[in-house]
Amino acid sequence: MTSPPVPVSPASSARPVGQSLLQIVPSTACVQCDVCCRFPERDSFLRPFFTGEEIQKAVRAGLAPGLFPTSEGAQIDLVPNPVGEGYLCPAFDPATSHCRIYDARPLDCRLYPFALMWDAERAHVVLGWDTKCPYMREAPPSLVDEAAGAVAQWIEQDERLATLARYPRLIGRFQDDVIPLRTLARVTERLQQGRRPLRRQALTVQDRGRLEAALAVNPAFQETPLAAASFAYHYLWRHRLTYTWAELEGHLCLFAESPDGIFLALPPLGEGPIEKPVTEAFRVMRECNGDSAVSRIDNVPEAYRPGLRALGYEVVEKEPDYLYAAADLVDLSGEAYRSPRAACNRFMREQGGVLEQYDPRDRTACLSLFQEWREQKQRMGPDAWADALLDDAAGAHETALSLPAELGLSGAVVRVGGRIRAYTLGLSLNHTVFCVLLEVADRDIVGAGAFVFREFCRQALAKGARWINTMDDSGLPGLAKAKHWYHPARLLPNYVVTESRR
Ligand code: SF4
Fold first, then answer.
1. Of the residues 21, 37, 93, 108, which should be mutated to test ligand 1's pocket, given the most ligand atoms within 8 Å of the CB?
2. Sheet containing 433-441: which strands, arranged edge to edge?
3. pTM for the full model?
4. In this predicted model, what pLDDT tens digit does every residue of 104-148 receive, in sequence order?
5. Does residue 92's CB lie within 6 angstroms of at least one atom of ligand 1?
6. Which of 103, 207, 273, 458 is most buried by a 10 A CB count?
7. In order of start, what are the domains of the chain with their CATH numbers?
């Protein structure tokens, strides 16, 4: 990881002094620069990583312990920039452009504008310099090279090797705007000691068949699968997560990488017991994440819970998926469905809507409806969590609307006065379960959402679906209320599995 420090003492080059490391960039240059310690996104992978000891020091220097997700070594939580866009390290004082914990800042910051990262092949650890630093872009190459030599020597000392081995997340992933200067042979050797590096493949649209075949032979996902048991469910979020896959012990493992580290997005997929692939997957995650709690398996269905508990894993329930009888959603009969039925009737009476098949030529109109819908939601009141979800959702909608056929999605739109006022996309999880993945409707038109949902479910029922899965509620009370409005037949349990920390 890299993160920028704000030096208070000028130095002509980075020179080790005892346990310290003076900065190559003079403080006069730093206080005039607006790159350091500021980040465009709250979960930027560049936010500084603190080891356990560094967290203790930072807390003693005045930072709140709650700024660290775990006291055992973590990236710090950023805070919104009070005087501009983006986010700040909470130790940064925007009024003075100084670090409030300068003497206690972590190694990650002390190194900057140098950075430790894996090379593109993840074969060697390298020391590079970050081209985002304006001072370094102008610095004489001989000065940078001399400083890099000194830093490399300092980093390869036994004490630092032990720290890096204990906290491998201090080594960032490859960034093409960091210029490699030195290969760190001792660090590489130490990090790879006793390891069996796993070659993971980037997930592409061409892998859909491979993932679907692996899901199809997995008994735990067959009868009433979670929405996560599909290729599209994951691929839609590739703008937020980097997906890779690998075969482990004859099972396909789908890894997702967030700014915090890698985790398994689904349990290992394939025939036979998953004990061995689960063990191997946790080994791989530990090698990448160190002791971080980010190592986990998401979207584990009920069928695996007893076995994984018996093996000593922690199995914790997260928000369940909502499962409905398709016929109930289409008939909307009886007192229980009075409100959605009335909403549909009013929409048909006032707007006379008809459901049409989504055509990729509708993409631009749908994306502009998404923006309107997002603004309508924001006008309902501030909700930081919901806003963050909407930010994330924008990329997912864009991908789904751009690649419906490639992702195996079917979609529908509803026009009012010639303009698209609702759209939805979904896919069959198996012969009897259809999943509604995305739905957007103009909130100013009463019943538009209820209508597009009912008619889309009617299509699914006509194609043989007996059940409709509408995914989970993301912990949003408003969304949970809307999902309960339709009286789910079942809530499908969904678990997160971690290694026991006891
Ligand atoms: S700890 Fe200090 S130097 Fe490091 S990012 Fe935060 S403010 Fe900047």
1. 37
2. 201-202, 242-248, 251-258, 261-264, 297-301, 490-498, 314-325, 467-469, 433-441, 419-428, 410-416, 355-357
3. 0.72
4. 999 999 999 999 998 877 789 999 999 989 888 888 888 888 899
5. yes
6. 207
7. 16-192 (no CATH), 202-319 (3.40.630.30), 321-493 (3.40.630.30)
